[in-house]
Amino acid sequence: MKVLIPSALRSYTEHGEAEGSGATLGAVLADLDRRYAGIRFRMIDEQDRIRRHIRIFVNGEQVRDLSQPLRATDEVTIVQALSGG
Amino acid sequence: MARKISKPADRTRGPTTRARRARRVLVAVATRKGAWLYHGDAARKTWRADGPHFLGHVISHLVLDPRDGRTLLAAAKTGHLGPTVFRSTDLGRTWKEAARPPAFAKAADGKEGRSVDHTFWLTPGHAGEAGVWYAGTSPQGLFRSGDGGVTWQPFSPINDDPQYRKWMGTVQDGTPDGPKLHSIIVDPRDAAHLYFAMSGGGVHESVDGGRTWAPILKGLEVVEGFDRAEATFHDPHCVRLCPSNPDRLYQQNHCGIYRLDRPSDTWVRIGKTMPRQVGDIGFPMVVHPRDADTAWVFPMDGTAVWPRTSPQGRPAAYATRNGGKTWQRLDAGLPASQAWWTVKRQAMTADAADPVGLYLGTTSGELWMSRDEGRRWACMARHLPEIYAVEAAELRSR
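ok -> C-alpha cells follow
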C-alpha cells in the first residue's frame, strides 16, 4: 500500500512516497524497516509506542494502535508534529 | 578528555622523517543543530571547518575512536524523531546509521517500559578491546557495543535493577532536558574497572566488568535538606579520571568540586578554596593529560534561582596546579563583561599537546581555545548553534 513519508524521514526513503505491505499498521511499519533500515525506530520506540511528535493517519483518520488492521487499498500517512524551534 | 591517537609504526621511513611529522588536532563539536569538525594546523593556529554534519539534528556527543584514529560516532536525534547513532569510518566523509541504536529492553506485558529519549554520552572502550564502546542515555541507561557502534545492547544489570531504578528517580528528578547517565570511564589499566555517573543518581563503580556496581558517595554534598546517604539526591555533573594517575578522579558536582584518590572511597571537596564570589559550581571538569595535579573548571552562577551563567557575566576558567589546594583565574582574551553564557558538562576539553590546548564551547555558539593551558584564550568560531559537546583528538599527519 502507499505510505506517505514526511520530509524528516526522506533521508531513508529518498522519496515522499513509499510502498509497504502488511495486514496491520505494525506489520506495514516492520516492512518499511526491512526496506529502509532504521526508519521504524525513529517513529516507534522500543516499547512499541508511537513517538510523541509522530502522528499516523490511515485514510485520513488518526491511528494510535499498531495492531490496527489494514487493507491493501488503504493509504498510510506519517506526519511529524509542526512544533519546535 | 584528549585522546592521543596511536598508529602502527611506519617502518619505511627513518627516524628523522618521523620526528618531522607533525601531529594535528581535530576538534569535534556537537551542537543542538548539527556537528562540526575543526582540523587544526600543526601550530593549532588556523582551523579548517568541516560541517555542518546532520544539520538540524540534536547532536549530544561526537567522539573519535582513539584506537583507530578515523572512526567517529555521533549521538543524534531530531526534535521529532527518535534517537540514533551515526558512524563514520573515514573521519566524517561518509556516515552510516547504527543498525541497532541504544534501546531499553521491551517490558513484559502489562509493565511500563522505558524508552531512550536520546543517547547523551559516548565512551570508547579499553585500548585492548577494539570495537567496544559504551553509551549513556537519557533517561539513565548504560549500553555497550562490541562492533564499533553498529549494534548496541543494554549493558550490565543496572538498567532494570530495582535499586538502581529507584536511585534514577523519575523524569521530574533529572535535568531540564531529561535525567542522564554520563561520565562513563574505563580504567586504562583494567578493562573491567569502570565508573559512571548519573544526574541524578550519583557516581558508581564496577570492578568486575559491569556485572555488579556500587555507589561512591562519601564526602559528596547534596542540596540542603536532603539525605546525602541517598544516591537519588546526588548530582555529579562531570567526572574525569587522570590518565597519568588512574587512581585519581576529579568531579564537578552540583554541590562543589571534588577529588578522589583511590583506594579511598571518600571524595574531598577541593572547591572550597575557589573565590567566594565565583563559587565552585559548574558543569565541565578537565584534567591534564600528563600531570594529575592539574585540572580546570569553568564556574557558573549557582546562586538563588541558579542562572547557570558566567558569574557576574565575566566568564573564566580556573586552574589548579596542586590538586585543588589553590586555584588560578584564567580569563585573558575572554569577554571582560556582559557575557552570560554557559559551558555545558561535555563542552570543555583538552588536547594532549605540550603545552596543553584547551577548548570550550558555549551555549551561545562560540568555540574558544587556548594554546597555553588557559593563560590566553582566542575565539575559534562564532555563530554556531548552542554547543553541547567539544572533544579534541590528536591526529598524525597522513
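DSSP finds three helices and five strands in chain A.
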